[in-house]
Amino acid sequence: MSASVQGKNKKISSVLACALTGAGVGAIFSVIRPSGGFAGENQAVYLAGLLGLIVGAIVSAFLIDKKKNKIAMFLSAALSLALILGGAFIGNTAVFSVCAALFCAGAGIAVTSALYTVQSWLALRKGLACALVLGVAGAVDGIVLSMLKNGALDASQLTTFIVLGIVCAVIFAVSAVLMNTADSEYMDSLYDPQKVRILRSSIQFTTKQMVSGKHFKQLLVIAAASFAFMCMVCEKITALTQVKQISEYQADMFSVYTAFAFAAGCIVLGVFSDWLRRKLTFMLTFLIMGIGSWIAYSFVSDMFVVGAVTAAFACGGASVCLPAVIVDFYGEENSGKNIGVFAACTFFVMGVLFVLSGVLMNTTNGLSFPFEVSLLLAVVGLVIAVILGRPSVDLKYKQEALDEENKENALEVEEDDDLIEDSDDVDNDDD
User: Fold this and answer.
1) What is the Cα–Cα distance from 171 to 19, expressed in whole angstroms?
2) 3-class SS at 393?
3) Measured between alpha carbons, how far is 225 from 382 in angstroms, rounded to an integer?
4) Which of 56, 109, 148, 404 gets the most CB atoms within 10 Å of its CB?
5) pLDDT per position as a tens digit, 164-190
6) Closest by alpha carbon to 338, among 277, 380, 272, 391?
7) 396-401 — which CB contacts under 8 Å span 24+ positions?
8) How confident is the model at residue 183, as a pLDDT?
């Protein structure tokens, strides 16, 4: 088999493995989601799951930096088996929360590794690449929620958790076997200036440079503006169910609709971002959120589901653009570590937003409040998207890099001198 055929087969198997990983992540998220899922309104479980996602993203960033991607995926497979233990203690919030932190750590490791790997193979279609992972995750989340609603799955039965745990473990283990990262030679061949006109980052940013720059903060604001409304909608659905303003059936259907809308937003806006630009896609995302929020705010009694679905669609678009922008802005060399750190920060922001939205929902009555806030968030996100530009390396870091390079060169010269001295001593001994 020729090298080109082997490379093509490796690309196909890796991309499919990343999409498969998204399916496992979606199944795990359906367990901890704050409305419609297994945990229901249990905030402790959701926050424990977010903590696990944060730890998982950081662990994955470390392992990817050490070129141990397969170990990361096998670790995520092992951690996903905590679903089985959690099912045995579904009635014990403390134990189930610990289990949620463990299997969500596995999901955090898996999704970070998949986003890094799939973008290395589909470097010219990063939006589509991220959509294959996150879009599949959203779709599977919706499918699992539908099965819960229809009675095909029972959240109170240990058998359900055993099946989910085994399925996720097998998915992540198979992905670990199939998943390979594209090498630098393949990446260089993609960016042949005679074939493509896609701008490639000429500077490879370290994680320290990324985190300290203003563009990193701007991207976090975009993430916060995108996810905040989703957090509030989930909280509002739970609150309305508790006071009997909507039935449990309606709440379940809202959750199913938002999950599928998220998946649709990932695919549609992800592909759109490759066709046009990521910046314009962010702007379109917040325009969609603003329009949907205005419709829901104006006709709130009849249009709540419209606002929720619109926000989920926009959130899906932002979700696929954010990891793609990390590679666009900061280069491929440290992309695995950079994606992991950004994902961890995003999960932390989601936790803070979830707590704040819970406080706000408990102090407000009626349906309109989430849409009032979302209009403001849409404006803030749109402004940040307009001013967002490519980062440049600060002169301080340029000097640090130069000093580090000079230091390495000096060490190489010293080693060469030592070798010359040793060879001279051997010659003298022979004489």
Assistant:
1) 10
2) coil
3) 9
4) 109
5) 899 999 999 999 999 988 876 776 666
6) 391
7) 397/206, 397/208, 397/209
8) 74
Instruction: Enter the DSSP assignment of 193.
Output: T
CB of 165 closer than 8 Å to CB of 84 = yes
User: How many angstroms separate the CA atoms of 64 and 180, rounded?
Assistant: 12
Give one DSSP letter per residue of 92-140, joined into a string. -HHHHHHHHHHHHHHHHHHHHHHHHHHHHHSTT-HHHHHHHHHHHHHHH
Find out whether 145 and 255 touch, Cβ atoms under 8 Å. Answer: yes
Whole-angstrom Cα distance, residue 384 to residue 361?
26
Q: What is the pLDDT of residues 96-136, one digit of tens each?
A: 889 989 999 999 999 999 999 999 898 888 999 999 999 99
Length of the chain counted residue by residue: 431
Q: What percent of the residues of the chain are helix, what percent strand, and what percent coil, each to the nearest 5?
A: 80, 0, 20
Q: Are 289 and 378 in contact (CB under 8 A)?
A: yes
Entry pTM: 0.83
Residue 251 DSSP SS3? helix
- Amino acid at position 146, single letter: S
By CB neighbour count within 10 A (0-12 exposed, 13-18 middle, 19+ buried), where does 6 fall?
exposed
Evaluate whether 223 touches 343 at the Cβ level (below 8 Å): no
* 3-state DSSP assignment of residue 207: helix
Retrieve residue 158's tokens.
Answer: 């240990």
Distances (CA, A) of 100 to 29, 84, 166, 310: 10, 11, 15, 29
Most confident of the ranges 255-269, 371-385, 390-404: 255-269
With residue 303 as reference, give the H or E element that holds it. Answer: helix 300-330
Closest by CA to 91, choosing from 28, 36, 161, is 161
DSSP symbol at 34: S
Question: Is the confidence at residue 356, as pLDDT, over 80?
Answer: no
* Nearest in space to 25 (alpha carbons), one of 89, 67, 83, 94: 83
Which sign does the torsion angle of CA 322, 328, 329, 333 carry?
Answer: positive
User: Can you read off the two tokens belonging to residue 346?
Assistant: 């995003």
* Joined tokens for residue 170: 């097998």
Q: Which residues, 6+ apart, have CB-to-CB distance to 152 below 8 Å?
A: none
372 neighbors 85 (Cβ within 8 angstroms)? no
Q: How far apart are CA 211 and CA 334, in angstroms?
A: 13
